[in-house]
Task: structure prediction
Amino acid sequence: MHLPKDLQASRAGYHHLDHARGLLWCGKRDDALAALERAEKIAPMLIRNHPMAQQAVRTLLDLERYSYRERIRRLGTRMHIL
Result:
């Protein structure tokens, strides 16, 4: 799906956040992480402070347990979860 180029950053960020949560529910962790990173790139403050984004990152961290990958560790650090 391609979003319109003139779409507000916050709306595009919400789209990618919702997409990431859906992917997470389907068990596609790598794709969910990529969608969260895309959302953060588009609307960083919205995603870093949004409770649903923080919960998605916490879920990814719980699923990874002690072997946190560097990408999810950096995202968790930017969101002040780790």
In short: Helices lie at 9-25, 29-42, 44-49, 51-64, 70-78. The CA atoms of residues 21 and 48 lie 15 Å apart. The mean pLDDT is 88. The first helix runs from residue 9 to 25.
